[in-house]
Write the structure tokens for this entry.
Amino acid sequence: MTILITFLASLLVFGAVIAIHEFGHFAAAKLSGIQVNEFSIGMGPALLKKIAGGTQYTLRLLPIGGYVAMEGEGSPESEQAQRERDAREDDGDQEDACLNPIPPEQRTGIPFPEAAVWKRAIVMAAGPLMNFVLGFAVLLGLIAFRSDPIASRVIYRIEEGALCGQTGLQPGDEILAVNGRRCFIANDIVYELVRTRNTQADFTVLRDGRRVELPGVRFDTYQDEAGGTHMDIGFVVYALEKTPANVLKESLNSELYYGRIIFTTLVDLLRGRESINNLSGPVGIVSAISQAASYGLTDLLEMLVLITVNVGVFNLLPIPALDGGRLVFLAAEAVIRRPVSQRLQEGLTVATFILLFGLMIFATYNDVIRLFTGGF
């Protein structure tokens, strides 16, 4: 039963994240008048196919990816090959016709390279954007319907004798920033305090209408049963009334919180603050989804938010193999008034893809080691 739940939960999360991402590219291409030959969810052998509106919609066996195949998106050589296939289709050569599922007479859009640069940029950005939309929609539902109140950033009470109260914080302080990083929601405060390494932090608060800097606020510590040392925050904050405005604001700020966690983690990896050995691949993600599903639907949906925001942020990085890299090439094309060399684009994309694939293999290796050593 546990294996079945893990499979269904993973299918739900991966399916939703991939489908919404590819739908973003697909919808933007259609609205921009670009010919979309195939919209596929999943990879590998096709399970279901249907042609409608000049596009083949395909459901494939492996729920580990998807794609939107637009006319002329490849290299000049592939475009020439496509024209040759079209000519063969006109001659009745069915063997080559299967390489493009849409007959020429049903292709109503223009090839991708013929669209204006700004339209192509919108198509590339629409995938990650839809991941953020999905995350926001799920957060909106979670925050609106959960029984827990919305936590503010205003201190309600400081525990008696707490070190943080003795070194600067006071009831009524609205926490604006911790260690120079602005806090939008209560979770931002917790995240920044978890990242601090010496149980003290610099605070910026709003006190009696004035901005006050509180350097070196210290916190108490305690030890768990395993002997680990943890920080005791020592204060509680006010709850906010769950009005529509507060729910919308909390949902938006919560998505920014998830996005900042992901971006900060990437920066910490590059700076060496986080070990690359902590990276997780598909096995680790499935394990995390399984654990979240075991806690209930709420935790599973929160995991979905984390993953979809992660996909959105990661795809916007200016790396050639990702949507962000394509946006960089399009920005360069807009500046120099001509497309970036196709050979250069392909070379950088292939090289980056190899690096990313190697990184995924390394992360998967980490996952397997943790799986057998009980690290999950």
